Each structure stands twice: as C-alpha cells, then as structure tokens.
C-alpha cells in the first residue's frame, strides 16, 4: 500500500472507530455518578442535588476521582472500538500509534469535560448565554461539549494516530 493510501486508511478507520468509541465511552459506559460529579471540583460550594450533604473538600476530591475514572474508561472504550475497526478494515496500525492517539484523545476529552476551558471559550466567543441555557429540554453546555468532542477531539485523535503510524511505517 502506498504511503498516501495507508495514511488515508488509518485516518478514516481511526475516525470511524473514534466516533463509535465516543458514543460508547461518553454515554453507555460512563456511570451516572461520574457524569454528575466530574465537575464538582470546579464548583465545590454547589451541591449537585438537594440530598448532597458533602463538604466542599469532599466535592473537590469526588470531582477529581470521577473525572479521572471517566477519562480512563473513555480511553479504554476508544482503544477497543478502534482496534475492532482496524481489524474489520484490515488496516495494520502499530500499537504505539494506537496508544499515542488514544492518550491524546482521552487527555483532550478530560480537559473538555473538566468544564472550565469550555466555559472560558463560551465567554470569549459571546456564547455564555447558550452555554448556561438549561430549559425546555435543551442543555447548551452539553451541546458545546459534544461539538468540541466530535468536531475537534476526534480529529486530534485520528491525526495523532495517523501521524505516528505513518512515521513508524517509514522507519521500517
């Protein structure tokens, strides 16, 4: 396979596997506890429900643990779905390239899910009203979160995987 075709095959297969892994890791595998608590460290004085009697210190700890656990399970979902996609497509991607892409993508995912950078982006682009919208079944922060994951993060993961795979292939 010529280098251009290889890069295209790796990039496309990674993107397809990444989209599947995103939906599985962000919705099917992420626990309700982690989804509700992963941003507690950013607003420790705000209870997540009427029966949340934890101290701010406990909320900070729980937020870090939940965000870290979600990042780990999300990354594992990405690894598995991409490996299956490579297998089905018959595309050989070195493990080091798969790992590099997954680490880049999971790291990006955690930064977005932390919430603070997304809020700063919304403020800087005059979208804070949309970010904070939570009425009539619409949650603006979640929509911005998903747009960032799907529009940027998945591309970063595919680009890193492709770049490392192509580089390792040239070295052979």
3D structure, described in words:
- The protein is an all-alpha fold and 172 residues long.
- It has one domain.
- The protein is 77% helix and 2% strand.
- It has 7 helices and 2 strands; from the N terminus they run H-H-H-H-H-H-E-E-H.
- A two-stranded antiparallel ribbon has the order 1-2.
- A hairpin with a 2-residue loop joins strand 1 (134-135) and strand 2 (138-139).
- Helix 1 packs antiparallel against helix 7 (140-171) and helix 4 (95-114) runs antiparallel to helix 7.
- It is elongated, with a radius of gyration of 18 Å.
- The mean pLDDT is 93.
Task: Using brief descriptors, characterize the structure shown.
172 residues, mainly alpha, two-stranded antiparallel sheet, 7 helices, elongated
Could you estimate the helical fraction of the residues in percent? over 70%
Shape: elongated
| Largest sheet composition | 2 strands, antiparallel
What is the N-to-C order of secondary-structure elements (H for helix, E for strand)? HHHHHHEEH
Structural domains: how many? 1
The gyration radius over C-alpha positions equals 18 Å
Strand segment tally: 2
Nutshell version of this structure?
The protein is built from seven helices and two strands. With 172 residues, the chain is mostly helical.
